[in-house]
Write a structure and sequence with these properties.
The complex is a heterodimer. By secondary structure, chain A is an alpha+beta fold. Chain A has helices at residues 23-30, 64-67, 75-78, 85-93, 102-115, 121-128, 138-157, and strands at 2-8, 11-17, 49-52, 55-58, 71-73. A 5-stranded mixed sheet of chain A has the order 2-1-5-3-4, with helices on both faces. In chain B, the strands form 9 sheets. In chain B, strands 12-13-10-20-17-18-19 form a 7-stranded mixed sheet. Chain B has a 5-stranded mixed sheet with strand order 15-23-22-21-16. A 4-stranded mixed sheet of chain B has the order 3-4-5-6. Chain B starts with a helix and ends with a helix. The chains are: A alpha+beta, B alpha+beta. Chains A and B meet through helix 1, helix 3, helix 4, helix 5 and helix 6 of A and helix 5, helix 7 and helix 18 of B.
């Protein structure tokens, strides 16, 4: 075993684990951040998406050794009071059904809005095209991302708003 | 074998506990506490099992069905809240505890249909008692009091009393059996958009599914199962797996669909990767030669064998024989996987002669039965905590994985959480059976039907529907002679809604070695695909507009079929709405290189919900690709209880149906399931989705249920649109570019 140091939701963490252990299982089984979901384990469903810095990453594809020294945000760290623009938009559009895939979708959308504050339909389809939702919430998802972009713009127009990832 | 009806009825009585999962991400050790429900200050007001008001005013509403995304933990409490007259915000919603003796079994789009009347009475009875208590306190007429969002109001004096303060007095009153129900015009919540009650928890990561359960000393299990349907376990060597740090045991397991070898480990990842280190020798299977594509090709041959009568009206065979013209076509629906995003999992703890279970399940009944059977204890000794499901779609009507978890916990004496990998979930399921529908019509000179015969192989589902742990490969179950009419099945064949005086529906029993079970909308997807495609073919052959052709078959009036009463005016109405709202009569805008057209389908689900759907498709001129651009659905599911929920289930049903229409198919070669992930079992993604418009045609009738209803309409609407666009008729799903080129 090896000690790996990383930052999760703003907190420094030391993880003693096999270097090959995927970040997904470190977050779930060691840190009990259950908002990170197992859906496929091979990077094609998007359920385990987290933010690595400000970029979306599939936690199932990141060995803990590669995560060392980096900073991660899970859904639990995005905003516990649900005031991130994506969370607000998700609630307003009533996107979720079973909810299992939604944390990954929200974090992917948060990363998209950082990179493209006014995303087009094509941007949204590319960014979220790597995610599976078996309940088929896609229609509302698309609307929610656009609404979140509006919220984010309105927020940035306000002075001295605490920045969320 | 347990029939569908029996599962809806009966009762179980189990102890009630509340599961509290500690969310403490900072906590050092995995923790879950199982605690009794906290005692409120003083006895609560609980005139029935469905609601409870504490003296401090805290309201708890109990959901009587299980939540898998379809919204029952929003809608059912909302019905109670409406009649009780409390705001849905701020109340606590819990799953009805087993001590209430009510089965929570959730299937067949039955929740709102079955619970609506009962929940209204429960809420109204409580409201009446609270009102009486307030009137007594004020010494005024009950009639002079009203309720308003959690309190009783005496309008003429402006006095109010909160429900909480009335609890001690209301508890002493008799529960009225026939309380006055609110008039629909007085509804404040029902009929308006109601957002999901657990939305905040979902977007903050605070919802808990099965894999999030933590029990002290719990072990994690992954199971290697035979790769061949019906395969057996000969021997295994777990030495290499046991050598991996964190692995604590390797044991055989046989309670599931297939025998396997389990690795027990201290975390999920270790269990999953140590499983790959197992050396296992699997035995032969009697069905090693099974090939599902060959099976699909052979299916229509089943219609040569004796058939079981489903519905006979008039003399269809004679009319067809003597008819002017005749047309016959056969439609094939392949095997389908459920593939919910949350893979199968269960946590079990066998101890003290009983079992404690934490399972995302659609059926408390079968989970408890299975646990008791495997643990060898009485059902009363099983305590089940049903959890939110990350999708159900029918797969979680089975309890095979519950049996495996119980068997493993029994073997090691510790709590065990069994987790299926995506590959396990895809390969070891109960699949939607592959079926064929053959339609034969006798036609008059104008191309109108004078007699119709529908032969279906949908019996396959009825046979294995609730198979649990029986060895179907070596001892195929013999289905007792069954009166299909008694079970109103196969759905969509038995309750064919159109007016056809000479109709004959027969069923051929076909067995396959594939374990099968209900998939979203059960038999309707295949029967409706066939029927609605066939009507479309007849309309085109007659040179008649496909909607007009259907309308001719829907004379006004109510058609009685067994217990069903189908109001054909309601089906006509949704067809008319779909026609108008889709712009059916206006040409589609042309697009360079593409052929574009619309297609229609219609269906009635259990004589309760009436739907019509128009799909707009674009097919590349060279047939190299196709896409569905827009889907318009007109729905009359009676009284629209939650328009937002109806729209959500329409969007969801279209996505689900689109998967089977365009991509999804489960294959078996040499007895082995072929697909194993979302890479080879393609499901719709955001870019595959059409624009969706839902028109709710509220008829004010009894609520009709809705969780599955749009699914069956998708494939025929798309297939009919594809034909209209490019002249290619695809009768075997999925409609791929290859299928178009073959057609």
């Amino acid at each position: 075993m090896t000690i790996h140091r990383l930052i999760v939701n703003g907190r420094p963490r030391e993880i003693d684990a096999d270097p090959k252990m995927p970040l997904l299982w470190v977050l779930r089984d060691r840190l009990e951040l259950f908002g990170v979901r197992y859906g496929c384990g091979v990077g094609i469903c998007g359920a385990c998406t987290v933010l690595e810095g400000g970029r979306a990453a599939r936690a199932c594809m990141v060995p803990i050794a590669d995560a060392a020294g980096k900073s991660y945000t899970t859904i639990e760290g995005l905003s516990p009071t649900a005031d991130h623009p994506c969370q607000r938009a998700w609630l307003d559009e009533d996107v979720a059904q079973c909810g299992f895939c939604q944390a990954g979708m929200i974090l992917e959308a948060a990363a998209l809005l950082r990179a493209r504050p006014a995303p087009t339909d094509a941007d949204i389809e590319v960014a979220l095209g790597g995610h599976v939702c078996r309940c088929g919430t896609y229609d509302r998802l698309r609307k929610a991302v656009k609404l979140a972009a509006d919220y984010a713009r309105a927020d940035s127009a306000k002075p001295a708003k605490k920045e969320t990832p | 074998m347990i029939g569908r009806r029996e599962l809806f009825e009966g009762a179980g009585a189990l102890a009630c506990l509340t599961l509290v999962v500690d969310l403490g991400a900072c906590g050092p050790a995995p923790v879950a506490r199982v605690a009794s429900a906290p005692a409120p200050a003083g006895p609560a007001f609980a005139p029935n099992a469905f609601l409870r008001i504490a003296p401090d005013g805290k309201v708890t509403l109990y959901a009587v069905r299980l939540e898998m995304g379809q919204g029952v933990h929003t809608l059912l409490p909302a019905i109670l809240a409406e009649e009780l007259d409390v705001a849905l915000d701020g109340v606590t919603i819990e799953t009805l505890p087993a001590s209430a003796g009510v089965e929570l079994h959730t299937s067949g789009s039955g929740s709102s249909r079955e619970a609506f009347a009962k929940l209204r009475v429960a809420g109204a009875a409580a409201r009446e008692m609270l009102t009486r208590a307030a009137a007594a306190e004020w010494r005024v007429d009950v009639e002079s009091c009203a309720t308003e969002r959690g309190r009783v109001v005496h309008a003429s004096t402006g006095r109010t009393l909160a429900y909480g303060s009335l609890v001690p007095a209301a508890r002493k009153l008799a529960v009225p059996e026939k309380p006055a129900l609110k008039a629909r015009s007085a509804y404040k919540t029902i009929g308006k958009p109601i957002r999901r009650t657990n939305g905040h928890d979902i977007v903050t990561g605070n919802v808990r599914y099965g894999m999030d359960v933590r029990v002290p000393e719990m072990l994690f299990a992954a199971v290697a199962r035979t790769p061949v349907l019906g395969g057996t376990l000969i021997r295994f060597d777990g030495a290499a797996a046991l050598a991996i740090p964190g692995v604590v045991g390797v044991v055989p397991v046989k309670a599931g669909i297939h025998p396997g070898v389990a690795v027990l480990a201290r975390d999920t990842w270790t269990a999953l990767r140590a499983r790959d280190a197992l050396v296992v020798e699997w035995g032969p299977s009697p069905v090693e030669s099974f090939d599902s594509n060959r099976f699909l090709d052979d299916l229509p041959n089943a219609f040569r064998a004796p058939q079981v009568a489903v519905r006979h009206e008039g003399d269809a065979h004679a009319r067809i024989a003597e008819a002017n013209g005749r047309f016959e076509a056969t439609y094939v629906y392949p095997f389908q996987a459920h593939a919910p995003l949350e893979t199968m999992n269960a946590t079990a703890h066998v101890r003290d002669g009983g079992v404690e279970l934490w399972v995302p399940t659609q059926t408390d009944v079968r989970a408890v039965q299975m646990a008791a059977k495997v643990a060898g204890c009485a059902k009363e000794r099983v305590r089940l905590h049903p959890l939110l499901m990350g999708g159900g779609f029918g797969r979680r009507l089975f309890a095979d994985y519950v049996g495996e978890a119980v068997e493993l916990s029994r073997a090691c004496g510790k709590p065990v959480q069994l987790v299926y990998s995506r590959g396990d979930d895809m390969r070891h399921g109960y699949f939607q059976p592959a079926t064929a529908q053959r339609f034969t019509a006798g036609l008059d000179a104008r191309g109108r039907i004078v007699g119709l015969a529908h032969d279906t192989t949908c019996a396959a589902l009825t046979i294995y529907e609730m198979h649990d742990g029986t060895d179907i490969w070596h001892a195929p179950p013999v289905r007792p002679p069954q009166d299909y009419a008694a079970d109103q099945s196969p759905w969509g064949a038995y309750d064919m809604p159109y007016e056809l005086p000479h109709l004959r529906v027969d069923c051929a029993d076909v067995t396959s070695p594939v374990p099968t079970g209900p998939w979203r909308a059960v038999e309707y997807p295949s029967t409706v695909f066939g029927r609605e495609s066939f009507l479309d073919e007849l309309a085109h052959r007659a040179g008649v507009d496909p909607i007009a052709y259907r309308i001719e078959l829907l004379p006004p009036g109510v058609k009685k079929i067994g217990p069903f009463e189908i109001d054909r005016a309601r089906l006509r109405r949704v067809l008319d709405i779909a026609r108008a709202r889709s712009g059916w009569d206006a040409p589609l805008a042309s697009r360079e290189g593409w052929l574009r057209a619309r297609g229609i389908s219609a269906n009635v689900y259990h004589a309760q919900s009436y739907l019509a759907m128009v799909a707009e498709v674009s097919v590349a001129r060279d047939l190299s690709s196709l896409r569905v651009d827009r889907v318009v659905t007109a729905v009359d599911c009676g009284m629209a209880l939650n328009p937002l929920g109806i729209e959500a289930q329409t969007e969801s049903g279209i996505a689900w149906g689109l998967g089977a229409t365009l991509f999804g198919k489960m294959d078996f070669e040499r007895g082995r399931p072929v697909q194993s992930s979302y890479a080879d079992f393609r499901v719709p993604r955001i870019g595959d989705m059409p624009r969706i418009e839902t028109v709710i045609a509220d008829s004010g009738d009894k609520p009709g249920g809705y969780g599955e209803h749009p699914v069956p309409l998708v494939a025929p609407a798309v297939a009919n649109a594809v034909f209209a666009a490019c002249g290619k008729r695809v009768r075997t799903l999925p409609i791929t570019p290859e299928a178009l080129k073959r057609a």
